């Protein structure tokens, strides 16, 4: 039996922190690509909305609501008024979207974000600073959220990444 080229494994970071998302909660996979994380959360029993400018790649994310949208061309945000229990972004960076990502989190919602970081240019692409997180950038994005885990400048598998798992609102230790 051959390997299904579309069954690409989820990021270990996203898989590791998937359990932070409340059971049955809604998940938004932004710039979903082939839909590996949409599938991960569908398999975990979540409702999933997946957005990409090219949703033809995500055809195996059956069960997800697939939305074709260009996130960078100034079009209106396709999910206005919608809140999610988690927003997942991997291997994608468009800084003007940061406020929208945070606004899409319901109270208690989980931000799972992992992408290339400064230093990756040593290994190859992406090398454009527009596509590389600056040191501490995801921590800055998650200011005011409860950070469950954060890694910065980790070089592995010939790439440099930064990643975060954070929960909207105060953590249990800060609750009255
Ligand atoms: C490197 S892939 C990552 C896919 C997926 N998140 C993953 O990690 O498997 C980047 C994705 O961003 C999408 N993308 C790039 N520019 C976009 C834009 N302007 N609007 C929406 N999606 C975009 C691409 O179509 C592609 O699927």
From TrEMBL:
<keyword id="KW-0489">Methyltransferase</keyword>
<keyword id="KW-0949">S-adenosyl-L-methionine</keyword>
<dbReference type="Pfam" id="PF13489">
    <property type="entry name" value="Methyltransf_23"/>
</dbReference>
<dbReference type="InterPro" id="IPR029063">
    <property type="entry name" value="SAM-dependent_MTases_sf"/>
</dbReference>
<protein>
    <submittedName>
        <fullName>SAM-dependent methyltransferase</fullName>
    </submittedName>
</protein>
<dbReference type="GO" id="GO:0008168">
    <property type="term" value="F:methyltransferase activity"/>
</dbReference>
<keyword id="KW-0808">Transferase</keyword>
<dbReference type="GO" id="GO:0032259">
    <property type="term" value="P:methylation"/>
</dbReference>
